[in-house]
Amino acid sequence: MVSLFLKATAGRRQNMSLKPLLSPLFGLLLFLLPPTSLWAKDTLMSSKIKGQEDSFFLNISQAIADKLGLELQLRSATFGRALLLIRDGDSDIHVGALKRPEREAYLHYIEPPFARDVSRVFVVAKDQHSSIQRYEDLYGLRIGTQQGFTNFPRFDEDTRLKKQVVGSPKQNIGKLLRGRIDAFIIPKFFAIEILASKGLSDKLEFADYVHRMEDPGYIVLSKKSPLMATRGEEVESVIREMIESGEIRTLIEQHFISRDLPVPDFW
Fold it and tell me: Rounded to the nearest 5 degrees, what angle is found at the Cα of 248, between the Cα atoms of 245 and 250?
């Protein structure tokens, strides 16, 4: 009996001595497991870009999630942070990405693009629209840009321009209203939304110079997303059908019309 008691006691002591090790070992195991084994497959992760909280991008993401039977989960982030999230597989999808060589390493672009023409405008103070009538008028001006954004090659590569980089459109608006910059560059569709939503149409306006070029906007998936491994073909098929059927175009048009705003000429 004594020997049995000693064995049982020893066993309990052994189990107790293992308990402190179980928690860190379990955490290490979770860290080492691949993401597909940890992530819920019933969610679609995306980013809500700061300053674009009311964008039609969110309407499109929600429509895609609904068709796939997934719950859309959004994480607030700057545009630059959103690119990092989708690069690392912490976000599944992004609406409105432009095709750039450096991004193709981590983004899967779904063809065809949902928008063909994404014009760039320069926002200036009210009654200053004629201050920028051509590209050359930009020289000597303080121009706000946004971190992570690409605009058009001539502008992005022009080292003679006085560019000031910020993290969000809200910062550019604040600097322009306070006279700390003379203009900021932004996609036209976004400028239409942001000036209207913030009631700034009586204080800010578009410069006469608008840069127009075919620079298609895409819906993209992270190459590290668990959805690419488990439902990649299905997701791509659903999105392609939404684009080709005109459903996404309708969502965009409804978004602007419902707000009594001009519909951007994306097509």
Answer: 90
pLDDT mean over 92-119:
92
Alpha helix stretches (DSSP H) within 90-168: 153-157
* Separation CA 74–CA 232 (nearest Å): 20
Q: Residue 48: what residue type?
A: K
Specify whether the CB–CB gap between 267 and 249 falls below 8 A: yes
Q: What percent of the chain has pLDDT over 70?
A: 85
Instruction: List pLDDT tens digits, range 208-256.
Output: 999 988 888 999 999 999 988 899 999 999 999 999 999 999 999 999 9
User: Could you give the count of Cα atoms lying within 13 Å of 63 in the half-sphere of its Cβ?
Assistant: 20
Mean pLDDT, residues 138-148: 95
Q: How far apart are CA 222 and CA 91, in angstroms?
A: 7
Residue pair 195/201 in contact (Cβ under 8 Å)? The answer is: yes
Does the pTM surpass 0.85? The reply is: no
Q: Using CA atoms, how far apart are residues 250 and 47, in angstroms rounded to an integer? A: 22
pLDDT at site 118: 79
What is the largest distance, in Å, between two alpha-carbon atoms of the chain?
100
Burial class (CB in 10 A: 0-12, 13-18, 19+), 185: buried
Distance CA 24, CA 21 (A): 6
In angstroms, the CA 197 to CA 221 distance is 29
* pLDDT confidence of residue 67: 96
Count the neighbouring beta carbons within 10 Å of the beta carbon of residue 205.
Answer: 18
Q: Domains of the chain, with CATH numbers?
A: 37-115+215-257 (3.40.190.10), 120-211 (3.40.190.10)
